[in-house]
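Troubleshooting: if your tokenizer reports a length mismatch, compare your output against this known-good record of 302 residues.
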Amino acid sequence: MVQKPKRKCAACGSILEVIGSKALCKNPECSGGGVFTLCEFCGDYSLSLKFRYCVNQNCRLYKMRRDVCPICNSQKLITYKGRPICMNPSCISNRKGLSDCFFCGDETFLKVSVAMFCVNPSCAHLLERVVECFHCGQLSFVESAGCCENGDCAFYKVRMVLCKSCGRMTKVAGKDHPQYGRCSNPDCGDYFLQSDRQDEEATTTSSGRRLCGDTVAIPIETLHSASAEQEEIFVGEVKEQGQAQEKSSNDLTPVLRIEVVGDALAWLKDELRRRGLSSVIRVRVEFAEPDDDWADGLDKVK
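Known-good structure output:
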């Protein structure tokens, strides 16, 4: 008859004798209390009945105290950041807060503000706080790692920190990333693509003329969906009374009139308001002899 291998105590290494649902350590001086029951999170007889925590150092709930839940009567009640939480997904206390875990796929994710973690013992992110990723919208941003662990996310495993400008967890902190130290939130003033676009606009136009000051780029798709609504915005140097000055010399700034149509008008107003600009923009234009390509382009616009 083949004898079963003897179990060893996870606390002191002595022989364990399993009797029913309990295991007794042969060592009377056992540091774990001597009497254990099965730990559901590591599968070993290592949950000390004396200390009410698992003594197995390989357990993911090692030395995390577990009490009996007064609602479901299971020994899965833990204290998380000062709040009692039952880790039994079937407990009535978790009925309204359960959601599918992004990582293990089971309905074991406690989607409540005090928790935001999975209680599935086999989940790779057991008890790790997970929040919604700003970029992909999935519950896949692991706070302890500081990154999204959704393989389909554009910023997969790119470490992020809190951006002081927009208050979102969108500032790239991974030193190997090309946008290190810049924000990945398109609505943020420190957005890395916004900075690139402003740098390009401040350097030259397509005709080679240099521009200065604030510029606003209206998206092409906004113009395509324009309605019949129209409004005229004057661009140029403005008097205190708000009327445009008439300039005759080439050394002076001209007055330009721009017609903004439909949805583009609403977009432009929002953009100006966000930047703290008035509805009258001052643009400095350097005069130069128009080249043929520029003239052809102007004819097409007309």
